[in-house]
Amino acid sequence: MHRLVIVLLGSAALPDCSQAAGAPASRCAVRQVNAIARACGPLLRAEARRLSDGNTVRRDARVARVLSRLSHARDAPQAADMLFRLAGIAIGDATTRGLRALGEEAGLLIGTAVEPHDVASDPNYPPVLASDVASLTAENAMKWAPVHPDPGTYDFAAADAVVALAESGSHRLRGHTLVWGGAALPPYVEGAATGDELRSYLADHIATTMGRWAGRIAQWDVVNEPLSGILDPPTPDGLDDNVFRRLLGPGYVAEALELARAADPTAKLYVNENGIEVPGPRQDRFFALVQELLAAGAPLDGVGFQAHLGLIPIGQYPDAATIEASLRRFAELGLEVELTELDVTLLFRSGDLPSRLEFQGDYYRGVLEACTRVPACTGVTLWGLADRYTWVRRSFGFTDFPLPFDDDWRRKPAYFGMRAALAAAALRNA
Ligand code: XIL
After folding, report:
1. Engineering a disulfide at 2: which of 140, 268, 368, 428 sits with its beta carbon 3.0 to 4.6 angstroms away?
2. pTM above the 0.85 mark?
3. Whose CA is nearest to atom 8 of ligand 1?
4. What is the longest distance spanned by two Cα atoms in the chain?
5. How far is the CA of 139 from the centre of ligand 1 (A)?
6. Is the pLDDT confidence value at 31 over 90?
C-alpha cells in the first residue's frame, strides 16, 4: 500500500510550493492537498473504512496540524508518510479496535508489565488486557529474589500466576529477568565468597527458572542492565560493578546466555538496558558489548530498549527519528529489537497538566511510529497500563502520569497517540 500511494502521489504532479510566499503559498498548499486527495483518496478511504470498523473518519485539530504540514512536503514519499500519519490519527479516532488487534496488523506486539495481584484485585484490569495487550511481562514476579530466595529453594507462585494469566488470554510472554546484578538479588548471591560458589548458583538458577516454563516463554531478558547505572559513579570500563562482574569477570554476560540457551533452546535471548535510546557514549558502550558478544559467538537474539523516557536520562525526550535510528543501529547487527519497559514521565517537564498530557500523546505516537518503521522491532511493552500502578509512584513516591490510561482507566491522549501510530502502520502494510 505504501508503495502504491507513493506511485500515485508521484504521478499526481504535486504543485511546487517551495518558492511561493504569503497568500499564494497557502493557495498552493490547498492545490497540493487536493491533488493528493484526487490521486490517493479512493484507495485510502477504502482501506480506512476497513480499519475503522466502518465508523466515520473524522477530522480534528490533530488532523488539521498534520494536514497543514502536508503542504510543505518536499516529495512524494514524504507526502505519503504524512498522509499515512493523517489517516492513522483519523482511523485511530474512528475505530473501536484496541491496540492488540491494530498492533498485530501493524506487525508488532503491544505488551505490558503486570503484577498478578493488581490484575486479580481490579475488575477494570482484565478487559483492557484482552483488548489492548498481546504480550505480558512479570513486573517483579520472575526476578531472582522472589523466585529463588535461598540456595536450592524456589517459590514460583507469583510467577506461575503471570504465566497462567498469559496462557488463558493467549498473550505472548517475555521473561524478566534472570541475571540482574543491580537489584532484586537475595543476600546469599550478593554475599557469595568465590566465583565457583556464584557460578553454581547461577547455573542452577537459570536451568531451574527457565526450565520450569521451557517452550512457553517466547523471550527472556537473560541479563538486565549490564552497564553501570546512569546515576552511579562511572566504572573504568562502563560495566556495572556488581557481584557477577566482580567474581566472574565481564564474561558473565556470555556465560549467562550460554546457560539460557541450554535451558530453553526455543526462547529468544535478550540483553536489556536503560538509557540506550539516545545516541552517545552510553549507547556506544552498549553497542560495543553487543558486538563483542556476537563476535564471541554468544547466543544473543535481541536487544531490549527499556525506554523509561523522560526519566532516564532525566528530562530527555529523544524524538521519533532518533529512536528509530537507535533501533536500526542494533537491528543492523542481525538482532531483534523491542521497547521493553516503555513509559513517558512528565515529572521533569514544565507546563500545565493538560498541555503535558497532549505532549505525551504526540510523543507516544512518535515512539510507536519509530518501532513500526523498523522491521526488526517486534514489540513494544509498556511498564504498566494505568497511572495508578506505575512504578514511578510506587518505587520513588513521585506524582507522575507516565502511562496510557489514567488512574480510573480512562484512555489518555497517550493511548490515542499509540493507536494512531498503529493504525497508520496497519494502513501502510495493507
Ligand atoms: C521495577 C519495578 O517496576 C518495581 O516495582 C520494583 O520495585 C523495582 O523494579 N528497570 C527494570 C525493571 O528492568 O525490572 C524495573 O522494575 C524498572 C527499571
Report:
1. 428
2. yes
3. 395
4. 78
5. 7
6. no
315 burial class (0-12, 13-18, 19+ CB within 10 angstroms)?
exposed
- Cα separation, 146 vs 166, in Å, equals 19
Among protein residues, the one with the nearest Cα to ligand 1's atom 9 is: 140
What number is the average pLDDT over the span 71-79? Answer: 80
- Phi, psi for 121 (deg, rounded to 5): -100, 0
What pLDDT sits at residue 243? 98
What is the distance between the alpha carbons of residues 240 and 225, in angstroms, rounded to a whole number? Answer: 8
Helix axis angle, 320-331 relative to 281-295, nearest 10°? 20
Which amino acid is located at 44 in the chain? Answer: L
Residue 189 pLDDT: 98
CA distances from 337 to 76, 264, 276 (A): 29, 20, 12
Q: Evaluate: CB of 117 within 6 angstroms of ligand 1.
A: no
Q: Where are the alpha helices (DSSP H) in 169-268?
A: 187-190, 195-212, 243-248, 252-263
Angle subtended at Cα 99 by Cα 113 and Cα 54, rounded to the nearest 5 degrees: 165
CB atoms < 10 A from the CB of 124, how many?
12
Contact 113, 384 (CB under 8 A): yes
Nearest to 419 by CA among 406, 404, 408, 403: 404
For the annotated catalytic residues, the residue numbers are: 225, 341
Task: Quickly list H helices, 213-280.
Answer: 243-248, 252-263
**pLDDT surpassing 70 at residue 58:** no
Residue with cell 486527495: 37
Q: Is 341 in the pocket of ligand 1 (CB under 6 A)?
A: yes
pLDDT digits (tens, 9 = 90+) for 308-353: 999 999 999 999 999 999 999 999 999 999 999 999 999 999 999 9
